[in-house]
Automatic annotation (TrEMBL):
Keywords: Hydrolase, Manganese, Metal-binding, Metalloprotease, Protease. Mn(2+) 2 binds at residues 99, 134, 197. Mn(2+) 1 binds at residues 134, 169, 447. GO terms for molecular function: metal ion binding; metallodipeptidase activity. The active site is at residues 101, 168. It comes from Malassezia psittaci. It comes from the Eukaryota. This is Peptidase M20 dimerisation domain-containing protein. Binds 2 manganese ions per subunit. Residues 211-369 form the Peptidase M20 dimerisation domain. The record marks 230 as: Important for catalytic activity. One of its GO terms (biological process) is proteolysis.
Amino acid sequence: MIENQAKFIKYIEEHKSDLVKTLAEAVAIPSVSGDASYRPQVRKMGEWLEKQFQEAGAKTSTHELGKQTLDGKEIDLPPVVYAQIGDDSSKKTVLVYGHYDVQPALKSDGWNTEPFKLEEDQKTGCLYGRGSTDDKGPILGWLYVLLAHKSLGIPLPVNLKFCFEGMEESGSVGLEDFVAKEAKGLFSGVDAVCISDNYWLGTVKPCVTHGLRGIAYFKLEIKGPARDLHSGVFGGMVHEPMTDLIKIMSSFVSPEGKILIPGINEQVAELTDKERKVYDEMDFSISDVDNATGSSTTVSDHKPDVLMARMRYPSLSLHGVEGAFAEPGSKTVIPARVVGKFSIRLVPDMQPQKVVDAVKKHVEEQFKQLNSKNTMNISADPPGKPWLADPNHWNYEAAFKATQDIYGVKPDLTREGGSIPITLTFADKLDKNVLLLPMGRSDDGAHSTNEKLDTSNYIKGTELLGSYLYEVSAITN
């Protein structure tokens, strides 16, 4: 470990309280991108973030992405916050991506604490709050890489460019076109891309990730009566939208997680013996899943099968029903309109449009069999392709070495079950190697209640990000 790297690590260790305080400020801004009423808060978060990076010595700019229609209103999309520091032609240039928007969160959802107030549990060493691990903690890790070097008066080992968006949790609307437009502009001269927006496979051993599943998100609408009806007056007399919806959605997936829609599983790449061995050798146990979910509900007790279900096979999940009665108590209403929401996680060699076509065909056939007088509409959000990178690249070599620097172990090489569609956009439009270098653990509960980031992961994860830059600078192409 070189002298400047050691100084950087010591600085982070000595400023733990500052990192926690800054994360508390970020979590306090409820930057929920999927709700029109919260859009001013998303913009506020972007402005706050830009100011932080300016104070850390970066040159910044914001870039508007246009408008969208959300909740029946036309509103501005959150801007891209761009930051840059360093222009030394003798150094490599790394592009860092992150997002400053978050998922919705209410105390009534089952949170033990206020979701937009960071709570530090001294006993467990956990920092609870929406966005703590996804993705405000990692973004602030990068911020403190800059702040540490500025405070210490030592140069960064590489040039850095940052691209932060405010719509990742809502499909990254507008960002793909922006990246394509700026491939030879703001993002020119980039040598590699690093993203810290995923998690360890378990809770003990760090990992480096070279693959992500894509996603296709669907909304199935069933409409019937002109208004909600009383079941005591109209029950049995009319075709009920909820009944149609449940019948159709029950044909999508088995309780064991097998996708039942024809034309989906047939697209998946064949499993090779070499790939199978990778899952056998990963440092992982079923108890890691049990601890993360607070249950013993895995679809298999065989480690490789569980890992492949997360990483290399598609999955279909039912997410919710809009328009249905969901409050406590008993209400005998027949909903006039319901919308079922579900998604399919995509893997190589699946083609998003072929998946969308197969789902629509299946839904139309199922609805026709009902002989219902209701009306049906199935729509899909813009899908994201799966991504798989070559780990035999200096970008990954640097990440492996940095992980050993900080954690003292060689990380597992994993593929992630989640989706970050913009990852593939960066890889395609910039034609550069993309790396996922996670900060958080598998049990952080991103998108769920009581989302957290372990303080140790926050601190060591920040040290890892900085050390990765030193290892990048030490590698000769």
